[in-house]
What we know:
The chain is built from three helices and no strands. It has two domains: about 10-45, no CATH class; about 55-95. The N and C termini lie far apart (about 40 Å). The chain has helices at about 10-25, 35-45, 55-95. By secondary structure, the chain is mainly α.
Amino acid sequence: MKISAQNEPLTEAELDRLQQFLQNCRGGKAMNIEELSGFFAALDPGPPSALEDHPPRRRSAITKCRRKWSALIESLECTKHASHAVRRNLKARIL
Length: 95
């Protein structure tokens, strides 16, 4: 499986910069790397095949969570691309 640059694991230097950023957020009250990893792990309810092991109500809730998570990721990607386009246009106008 090919890993895109967006999905590559962070380097040690990137992890250090992220940790420094998190330490400076909210006066040091933001999550640290370990807490962030745990938070992301909690968001993943497991492979689709694991849904069969859950009762119908839980399957429905997990499916909704996955759909919400996918919509959020798509929204963030759209926002990121739009933000880059706006910055390029502004830069072109300034230069």
